[in-house]
Amino acid sequence: MTVESLIELLVSLCQFLDPETHSELLLEILTFYLKLGDPSFVISVFAPFNQGKSTLLNAILGQKILPIGLLPTTGAAIRIKYGDKLVTRITLSNDEEIVENGTQILENYTILDKNGKMRDDIKSVEVFCPHPLLINSIELLDLPGSEDERGQSNLLKINLLMSDIVIQVLDAQQLFTRKEKDDLQEWVIDKGIKTVIFVVNRMNLLEPEDQKQVWKRAVGFANEFRLNIPNGISNIYRVDALPALKARLKQDIGGYRNSGLREFETELQNLIAIQKQQLTQKRLLRLPVIARKLREVLEEKVTEIKTLLEKIDRDYQQECSKREQRARELNKKFGDSIKSCDDWLSSFGKNYYESAAYALAQNQFRNWENNVLGRDKNNVISAIESWVNAACNEFGHSKPSNLSISFPPDPKVYLPSTPASLGFWDNMADLFSGGELSDRITHNYRVDVVNAYLKASASYLHDFQDNAVSAITSYIHRVKSNSVFVPTAPAIPDEINSMVIIHNAIQEKINMLISLESL
Questions:
Q1: Are residues 450 and 463 in the same domain?
Q2: Rg of the chain over CA atoms, in angstroms?
Q3: Which of 203, 331, 332, 350 is the most exposed place for a label (fewest CB within 10 A)?
Q4: Residue range 356-370: average pLDDT?
Q5: 17 lies in which domain range?
Q6: Are residues 150 and 240 in the same domain?
C-alpha cells in the first residue's frame, strides 16, 4: 500500500469518528498526516518544569537563547530553526507577527505569570539561529513542563506528535516520578513515537557513590523503552546541563567534555543521520498504533450496528409473530362464522318452515322473505365477511368478491280442489249423522290446503339452502385463493440496507487496519 493510499484510508475512516469522543485520535491522525509530508526533522525536549530542558538546549546551541532560571519559565512551545542570524518571531492568535532580533522578547511572551498561567494569545513562537546542527531542516523544540494545566497539556501532545525524536530530561535528584512514567507512556510511547532518548541531568549534584546507584537505575529504566534506537547508539546519556552551558560560554573544552554534552551531541548527530536516511519509514512506524486505535473504534461501531440490527430483527420477528397470531385469530373467527352459518341453515325447518307457509297463505311472502329471512341472511353474511375484510385490511390483501346468497324463485303452491257437493244418499247419511260427513270433508280439505303451503315452503327453503351452501362454498374458495388469512411480512425498515452496507464497509476497513497493525 502506498503512502498516498494510506492517507486516503485514514481520511476515509475519520467519518466514523466522533469529534468529541475521539478528539485525541483525530488529532493523532491529523498530525500523522502532516508529519508524513513535513520536511522538518523535529527533536522535542520533554520533561516536567525546572528539570533543565531549556538549559540543555542552550548548552547544545552554545549560547543563552532560551530563558532559564530557578522558577518554572517556559509556558509556550518554542521552535528553534536555522536562520542566518538570531531572530525571534512571535505569531499571535490573530495572526499578527512580532519579529525582533535576539531572543529577549521571549521573556515577554513565553514565561509563565506568577500564577503559573501561560498567555492565551500566542499561536506560535519561533527562534531562528545560525547553528550548524539546525542546517538541513533540523528543528529543536522546547516544550512547556509536562505537569502543566490542560491547555498546555494539549499543546504538549500536539507538538510531541510532530516530533521525530523525543529527548526526555530526567532529574538525577528525583529520578522518574510516577507521573513522568505515566506521561511518557501515554503521550509518547502509546502514540507510536518510538525514538526516545533519555538525558539524566544534575548528576554532578550527587555524591559519587549515589551517582553510580542513580545511573544504574536510570539505565535499567531506559532499557525498558529502547524501542527504535539503532544498534551501537545508547538511549540514555548523562549531561550536566548547567555546567555544560557554562563550559560552552567560556569555551572550556575540558568542562564541555566532562559535562557529558560532547558525547551526547556526537551520538545525537549520528542518530539524526540514521533516522533521516529512512525518514518516511520511521514515521510510518506510528501507523500500527493509529491502526489499532482506529480498529478498536471501528469494532465498537460494528458492535453498535450489530446490536441495532439485532434489535431491528427482534422487532421484525415480533411483528411477524403478532401478524401470524392475528391471522390465526381472524381465521378462527371466520371458521366460527361459517360454523354458525351451517347451524343456521340446519335449523331452517324449525325456524322458518311454518312462518314461511303462513306468509304464503296470507299473501305476505315477499314481506316475510325480505324482513325475516333476508334480515337473518344479511346478518350471517355480514358476520362472515367481517373477518375476511378485517384480514384484508390488516394484511393488505385484495378482497374477494362479496358473498351473495340469492333467493330462489317464489314458491309455487298446489292447492287441492274444492270438495264437490254431497249427493242425495250422502246428504241423507249426513243428515242422520248430524253433519259429521260434511265436517270431515271440510276438515280434510283444510288439512290439504295447509299441507300444500307447507310443502311449497319446504321446497323453497330447501332451494335456499342449496343456494346458500353453493355460495358459501364458492366464497370460501375465493378466500383461500386470495390467501386472505396468510399474513404478509411487515415492511423491512429502510435503514437496514444502509446499515448493512456501512457494516460491511467498516468490516472491510477493519481487515485492512489489521494488516497495517503488523507493519
A1: yes
A2: 52
A3: 350
A4: 94
A5: 1-36+286-346+492-519
A6: yes
